[in-house]
Design brief:
With 743 residues, this protein is of the alpha/beta class. The chain is built from 22 helices and twelve strands. Among the domains are: 2-216, Growth Hormone, Chain: A, CATH 1.20.1250; 525-740, Vaccinia Virus protein VP39 (Rossmann fold, 3-Layer(aba) Sandwich), CATH 3.40.50.150. It has an eight-stranded mixed beta sheet with strand order 7-6-5-8-9-11-10-12, with helices on both faces. Strands 1-2-3-4 form a four-stranded antiparallel beta sheet, with helices on one face.
């Protein structure tokens, strides 16, 4: 009997967490490839999960276990009518533009996948309730089924990017998912029959203590399970679920923003999140509380050093640091949650409050934080809060004097960080040395004096992050900040006052001279002495057509290459970018530098908006649609290339900006060019000239014929793309980030 319930829960959880990355990946092309797609989907999933748990709690109380079993089987059959077998509805949605398409996306998810997901989300806690009503040796403590459920979720998440996505198209996965849903229906029906046949007449078990329950977790010898369920206990459950939920979205946004918005980078944090549940709710305690608490303190010190310093390289080490911290923080919270779980009779309510905490994490990150903060402040806030939830060291003081020092010592450490930040600017010290003095020294003091008391430690970390702002402020005055669904934008003035710079996430997206005489010089990755300058030289010399399309507006710097007889069209999905580029207090390229050429800015996703252009309309298409340091993967697929080629005039050129700290994107373009039998050259320009505003950049230019590339063929800086070790051709339903990652 236990095996039947275990298999059913495993399949249910696998379906639940298979559909999440599958749907989000399918939605990426209509939402600009932004990491917020995943955060919004997670908000939806967490909200429906909460609804499912509320349904379980209310159903058991109003109907009893037996009658709710009949209701659930009926709902499972009804939901089968709404299962999207091919997911084609997702791929054919119209463009969604504007500052905040979050609610449009939530409504679309609700009406397409809402009912099946609701039924699946309720299945895990409900089956555990059914099992508890069956005469079985393990029925008095069915929490081991929770671990089995999370194991199924974990397997599905890891299988998606490693096995399913590389080998199956989205439509094929949709059909497989629908078939497995039918299998689940049979399994749930079998569980219901077992309940009706063998279930006890009473629907509630007597409370069982932590010591007496068979198969009980061996965390402590306490009787936490027998405590009355007070308001404060519910608050603790909610908070211990809220912090990891917010952290998983925060760390996912961090990774996706600077690498790519792809399922592989979504599922790693979520898989770690579920793994901590598996470990915390297992029958044995694999990681002692004291070990995980100390590991959290160490990981927090490292991640605060990385975060406060603004480090961006090497990417894999930084990503690893954030993931390790997240894993340990989630483990500490979920272990405390497992220790406080109630007896079987209150199981449904326990899961409900855990779901409330998870949903609040999604609401906070996807809705509240973007409305309240113009930077990604929610992530460091959750770092601090997670550290505050650490178990207190048994040797720590607990008197009033200690509580006073919980406030005074962090203030002192923060003041020290600020003072050191001012001091280092007076001396010629390398950047690494400055970081170690301003951030490293205060963190060493925290490690030595503040770790025993969680609140003192957490406030100390917050003080260092705040105090170190004095140091980072020395890099330039902030002129404007914008945050919306598509990310965080910041415009700064350089320390010398010579430039204005646009920054998205951690990456510079363009700059402009303040000096009027040089204001119309294209800078950064678009410098006249760089790859794009050479591309425009060839284009203007051959002139296959006078129309130019630029995917990605940025500061508008590329318009400085315009000629009077040309027609320029920019495609930009982010309204905030358009506002910044058109604000003459920030940048004036669009106002002053277009050489009287007509310039149009089209709001919306480039792939969808380009389809409205006439066939073979553009002589040059420039792809520069970055999200922080990553190109949205859906702009580098075969389907995307087909659109570009359909709009490219005979003899025209397509220029791909493929600069990335983390990915070898030129290899992706190489695969696309080879599959379409195109000629392609790459220019890896490593020159960095900060005085003249030039950044290193890498560009790939492709054309239908080699002769269309003109003088690029004889320019030694332009080289043929490496024909060896090319990755598979990316498609809308296939991408392989690992194959192009810079290790």
């Amino acid at each position: 009997m236990a095996l039947l319930f275990t298999i059913t829960l495993f399949v249910s959880a696998a379906l639940l967490f298979w559909i999440q990355p599958l749907i989000a990946k399918t939605l990426l092309p209509i939402l600009g490839g932004t990491p917020a797609v995943w955060n919004t989907c997670m908000l939806f999933f967490q909200g429906v999960l909460l609804g499912g748990y509320a349904y379980v709690l209310a159903g058991v109380r109003l109907l009893g276990v037996r009658r709710q079993a009949a209701l659930h089987v009926a709902l499972l059959l009804l939901a089968a009518l709404f299962v999207p077998a091919t997911l084609s509805a997702f791929a054919t949605q119209p463009s969604i533009a504007g500052d905040n398409p979050t609610f449009h996306l939530l409504w679309f998810l609700l009406k397409t996948i809402g009912l099946p997901f609701f039924v699946l989300s309720a299945t895990a806690p409900l089956l555990q309730k059914w099992f508890a009503a069956i005469p079985h040796p393990s029925a008095r403590d069915p929490y081991f089924l929770y671990a089995a459920s999370n194991a199924g979720s974990l397997l599905a998440l890891l299988s998606f990017p490693l096995l399913l996505e590389p080998n199956l198209r989205v439509s094929e996965q949709g059909r497989m998912w629908a078939a497995l849903y039918a299998v689940l229906g049979l399994l749930v029906a079998a569980c219901a029959i077992a309940l009706w046949r063998d279930g006890k007449k009473a629907t509630e078990e007597e409370p069982v203590s932590a010591r007496d329950a068979e198969g009980q977790n061996a965390f402590t010898g306490t009787t936490d399970q027998d405590e009355a369920i007070t308001t404060m206990r519910r608050v603790r459950w909610t908070m211990l679920a809220f912090v990891p939920s917010s952290l998983v979205l925060g760390v996912t946004t961090y990774i996706s923003t600077d690498i790519a918005a792809v399922p592989l980078l979504w599922v790693i944090p979520l898989a770690l999140y579920l793994l901590t549940f598996v470990i915390a709710f297992a029958k044995r305690q694999y990681i002692p509380r004291r070990v995980s608490s100390r590991a959290l303190a160490a990981a927090a010190l490292v991640v605060v050093l990385v975060y406060a310093s603004g480090a961006t390289e090497p990417a894999w080490i930084l990503v690893l640091a954030h993931l390790i911290f997240f894993f340990v923080a989630a483990l500490v919270c979920h272990t405390r949650l497992a220790e406080e779980r109630p007896p079987v009779k209150d199981l449904a309510e326990f899961y409900l409050w855990v779901a409330v905490g998870g949903a609040l994490g999604g609401v906070f990150n996807a809705l509240v934080a973007p409305a309240l903060f113009d930077t990604v402040l929610e992530y460091p806030l959750m770092i601090v809060l997670a550290c505050a939830l650490r178990p207190r060291d048994e040797s720590a003081e607990v008197d009033a004097r200690a509580r006073l020092f919980d406030l005074l010592l962090p203030v002192g450490v923060g003041a020290l960080a600020a003072a050191l930040g001012v001091l280092v600017m007076q001396f010629e010290i390398g950047n690494v040395g400055r970081i170690m003095l301003v951030i490293g020294v205060p963190l060493m003091l925290i490690n030595h004096f503040l770790t025993k008391r969680p609140m003192r430690f957490a406030l100390g970390l917050a003080a260092v992050m705040i105090g170190s702002l004095v140091y980072t402020a020395g890099s330039g005055r902030t002129l404007a900040r914008e945050r919306n669904f598509y990310g965080t934008l910041r415009v700064t003035e350089s320390g010398s006052g010579a430039f204005h710079r646009l920054q998205h996430g951690s990456t510079i997206h363009g700059r402009q001279f303040v000096d009027e005489e040089r204001r119309c010089e294209p800078l950064s990755y678009f410098h006249r002495t760089g790859p794009l300058g050479a591309v425009f030289d060839v284009f203007n010399a051959r002139r296959p057509a006078s129309n130019v399309a630029i995917v990605g507006l940025g500061t508008g710097a590329t318009v400085a290459y315009a000629r009077p007889n040309q027609q320029w069209t920019f495609y930009e999905i982010n309204p905030a970018v358009i506002e910044i580029a058109r604000d003459p207090r920030l940048f004036t390229y669009l106002r002053d530098c277009h050489a009287n050429a007509p310039v149009e800015v089209v709001l919306g996703d480039a792939r969808l908006q380009l389809q409205n252009a006439p066939p073979r309309h553009y002589g040059l298409i420039v792809l520069d649609a970055f999200s922080s340091d990553a190109v949205p993967a859906h702009l580098l697929t075969k389907e995307a290339l087909d659109i570009y080629l359909s709009k490219l005039a005979e003899g025209g050129l397509i220029a791909f900006h493929v600069s990335s700290r983390s990915l070898n994107l030129h290899r992706v373009v190489a695969g696309l060019a080879q599959s379409a039998n195109l000629s392609a050259l790459v220019f890896d320009d490593g020159e960095h000239d900060p005085i003249n505003g030039k950044e290193p950049s890498q560009w790939v230019t492709v054309a239908r014929r080699a002769e269309d590339l003109g003088d690029l063929n004889i320019d030694p800086r332009w080289q043929p793309l490496d024909k060896e070790a090319r990755p598979s051709v990316w498609r809308d339903d296939f991408s392989n980030i690992i194959s192009v990652f810079r290790w």
